[in-house]
Amino acid sequence: MAKKLDLERILSKQGFGTRKQCRIMIINEEVTVNGDLCDDPSATFELENLKFTVKGEAWDYREKSYLMLHKPSNYECSHKTQHHPTIYSLLPHPLVVRDVQCIGRLDEDTTGLILISDDGQFIHRMSSPKHKVPKVYEVTCKHKVSDEQIAHILKGVQLIDEDAPIAALACERISENVIHMTLAEGKYHQVKRMVAAISNRVEALKRIQIGELKLPDDLKVGEWKWLSEGDMLLLNAK
Ligand code: URA
After folding, report:
1. Is the Cβ atom of 192 under 6 angstroms away from ligand 1?
2. Looking at residue 91, what DSSP letter applies?
3. Which of 26, 74, 160, 204 is the most exposed place for a label (fewest CB within 10 A)?
4. Nearest to residue 191, comparing CAs of 178, 68, 74?
5. Which candidate in 107, 118, 161, 217 is catalytic?
6. Is 107 in the active site?
7. H or E, element range at 117
8. According to CATH, what is the number of the domain 4-60?
9. What's residue 81's pLDDT?
10. Is the minimum distance from the CB of 105 to ligand 1 under 6 angstroms?
């Protein structure tokens, strides 16, 4: 039988506040469900395909949230930040209340694709070293990148504090100073350290792909969007 829940509880589970706060919004006629105003907090609804609005903003019911963000520079990937605003300030408040987490942190000056979810299993699968989900970075280097430097990155570079050399899965020159580097791991400052190890320096870093999922051209810096079924397939996440 399809799962049903009362409206007050649905809104609270979706991150719109405590049950009391949600009850007040419903009684104040600030909520519609499947196109109709509902001022009864105890009215029950099937969760599947449920569409609602809160204070005029449209939402679909989601058991779990899966989204991507185009991270801007000068944002930090943690809830308690030190020098810059948190990436979570770029998301709607109900998602933050649902305690979404980013999957693999980017440095504060790195831009690009970051996945965010409140599904622990998904977060584990996407971040576990066992699954080795490849990530592609667009790396703008200070100096021209030579064939020897690319060969070195592909063969493996020795980083301080690592037991064995680490190689990129792929490394392709895009222009004199720009390379696309694919990594299987997500070690601390890995791209910057690998580029430093070949006597070059990262000037700008952008993550452009995770698994087979590319950062969409139309997702502007600072914008987020829900992951579609197709995106989930590209991430091989189901
Ligand atoms: N490698 C880095 O050096 N920084 C990042 O933000 C991501 C990968």
Report:
1. yes
2. S
3. 160
4. 178
5. 107
6. yes
7. strand 111-117
8. 3.10.290.10
9. 82
10. no
